[in-house]
């Protein structure tokens, strides 16, 4: 394939790359360019998203740069989700960061650069491309975690994320070196062909190490140890970004590696995925029960939800992957909505409120905010008729169709544990005595975006099922 065709296929990444360079120049020339750069960054993300949507509509399925990069329906769908999540994270950030004294033009540029890395991740068809995308995303994320320089918690979060992220990268690289050593190639397709027969101990170790490194990136148990501390310490707009866009990218990357590179050895990886899924569901649910900090609670919620997502991967079928993508789309709306509600919890001194005690009796003092927060909590718990119920339903149905009835039953039973801490939040808002710790929010952007996402995960979301099912089926089909 010639260079011009390859460049055409990587158009979303080119848009974001050139935009980030231009935005860096604007940031250097203008002192207070934070909001302007944020607006232009959102425009760049929208442009990249529209390009990805065009690829999806056209049914593009081709490789670029001699097989290092793949543009297909799966990557296009994942990129659309990533760019939407990143754009929303940028829209809600400026006012909150300004009140913290942390709003600088570098913030949106780092988010755009992270989006470039995430786009490369979901289009990777080679171990080298995988690692380049992963590190580009991770390096931007380490800086974002410690972006509030005057906050000790933020600095601590960035340091923890960096140290543990470096450890995970080492594990991943070791696994990749084993795969290359025993197959003679870094291409997913060639690795898949080499693993079609009986695999030896070396290849098995490589598979385990690669899955372990990727499990860290999606914060799946038992590789979740960084998540609560980083989510709590990072500025809340950054945490909202971490919980949405990078989660989609890492999950999509795990899907592609598992299906394309390891697909012929389902017996080898399905057991690992099932164990990790159940551990994530249980640890995420049990770990959240005693949390008094809402950001830590949502961190354990993300671990819990990853467990449900992995049930779809464990099925190893086209239906299972399609169900995962449906769940991912709904999860992005739910988790962004939850963090938007959290960002509106501000005291009279302007300080962010994060404690469970701070939302006591919130329904009496801020009824609309409490109602929106309750919608997101009920939806995350998978309680019908909210849209979060549909995400869990399709994942469990895919597992049952794949003959994994015990896994689905255990997952359904464990989801009851998770419902406890979501209901605890609702109970605190609606049945406890008012703490009157939250002042009226003056951020209309948060109010409108939170309201729009609440409607999206309400029963109105069911109207999107036909379109969402068709698109996710097309995306899943590209892998098979």
Structure, explained:
- The protein is globular.
- The protein is built from 22 helices and two strands.
- Helix 4 runs parallel beside helix 16 and helix 8 runs antiparallel to helix 11.
- By secondary structure, the protein is an all-alpha fold.
- The chain has a domain of 216 residues.
- Helices cover 75% and strands 1% of the residues.
- The protein has a two-stranded antiparallel sheet.
- A hairpin with a 4-residue loop joins strand 1 and strand 2.
- The longest helix has 32 residues.
- The two termini are 23 Å apart.
- The model has no long low-confidence stretch (mean pLDDT 90).
- The relative contact order is 0.09.
Structural class: mainly alpha
- Give the mean pLDDT: 90
Q: If helices are DSSP runs of H or I spanning 4 or more residues, what is the number of helices?
A: 22
What's the count of strands? 2
- The helix-strand sequence is HHHEEHHHHHHHHHHHHHHHHHHH
Strand order of the largest sheet: 1-2
Share in helix: over 70%
- General form: globular
Report the sheet with the most strands, covering strand number, pairing sense and barrel closure. Answer: 2 strands, antiparallel
How far is the N terminus from the C terminus? 23 Å
Radius of gyration: 21 Å
Beta-sheet strand percentage? Answer: under 5%
Q: Low-confidence stretches at least 5 residues in length (pLDDT < 50)?
A: none
Catalytic activity: a quinone + NADH + 5 H(+)(in) = a quinol + NAD(+) + 4 H(+)(out)
Keywords: Cell membrane, Membrane, NAD, Quinone, Translocase, Transmembrane, Transmembrane helix, Transport, Ubiquinone
Subunit structure: NDH-1 is composed of 14 different subunits. Subunits NuoA, H, J, K, L, M, N constitute the membrane sector of the complex.
Family: Belongs to the complex I subunit 2 family.
């Amino acid at each position: 394939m010639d260079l011009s065709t390859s460049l055409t296929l990587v158009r979303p990444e080119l848009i974001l790359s050139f935009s980030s360079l231009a935005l860096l120049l604007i940031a250097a020339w203008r002192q207070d360019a934070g909001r302007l750069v944020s607006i232009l960054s959102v425009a760049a993300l929208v442009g990249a998203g529209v390009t990805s949507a065009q690829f999806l509509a056209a049914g593009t399925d081709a490789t670029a740069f001699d097989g290092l990069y793949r543009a297909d329906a799966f990557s296009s769908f994942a990129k659309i989700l990533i760019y939407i999540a990143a754009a929303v994270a940028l829209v809600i950030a400026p006012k909150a960061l300004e009140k913290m004294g942390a709003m600088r033009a570098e913030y949106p540029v780092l988010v755009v650069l992270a989006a470039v890395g995430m786009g490369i991740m979901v289009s990777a068809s080679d171990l080298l491309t995988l690692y380049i995308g992963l590190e580009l995303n991770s390096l931007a994320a380490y800086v974002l975690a410690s972006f509030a320089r005057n906050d000790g918690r933020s600095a601590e979060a960035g340091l923890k994320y960096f140290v543990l992220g470096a450890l995970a990268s080492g594990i991943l690289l070791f696994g990749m070196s084993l795969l290359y050593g025993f197959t003679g190639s870094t291409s997913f397709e060639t690795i898949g062909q080499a693993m079609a027969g009986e695999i030896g101990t070396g290849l098995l170790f490589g598979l385990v190490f690669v899955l372990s490194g990727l499990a860290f990136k999606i914060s799946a148990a038992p590789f979740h140890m960084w998540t609560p501390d980083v989510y709590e310490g990072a500025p809340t707009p950054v945490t909202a970004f971490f919980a949405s866009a990078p989660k989609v990218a890492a999950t999509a990357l795990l899907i592609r590696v598992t299906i394309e590179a390891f697909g012929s050895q389902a017996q080898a990886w399905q057991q690992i995925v099932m164990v990790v899924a159940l551990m994530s569901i249980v640890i995420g649910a049990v770990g959240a029960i005693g949390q008094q900090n809402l950001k830590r609670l949502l961190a354990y919620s993300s671990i819990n939800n990853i467990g449900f997502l992995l049930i779809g991967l464990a099925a190893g079928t086209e239906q299972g992957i399609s169900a995962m993508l449906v769940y991912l789309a709904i999860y992005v709306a739910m988790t962004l909505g939850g963090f938007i509600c959290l960002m509106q919890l501000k005291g009279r001194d302007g300080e962010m409120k994060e404690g469970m005690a701070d939302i006591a009796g919130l329904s009496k003092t801020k009824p609309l905010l409490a109602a929106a927060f309750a919608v997101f909590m009920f939806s995350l718990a998978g309680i019908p008729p909210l849209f979060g119920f549909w995400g869990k339903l399709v994942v469990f149905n895919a597992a049952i169709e794949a003959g994994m009835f015990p896994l689905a039953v255990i997952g359904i039973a464990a989801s009851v544990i998770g419902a406890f801490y979501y209901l605890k939040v609702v109970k605190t808002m609606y049945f406890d005595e008012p703490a009157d710790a939250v002042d009226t929010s003056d951020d209309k952007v948060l109010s409108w975006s939170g309201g729009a996402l609440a409607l999206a995960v309400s029963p109105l979301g069911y109207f999107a099922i036909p379109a969402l099912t068709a698109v996710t089926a097309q995306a899943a089909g590209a892998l098979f």
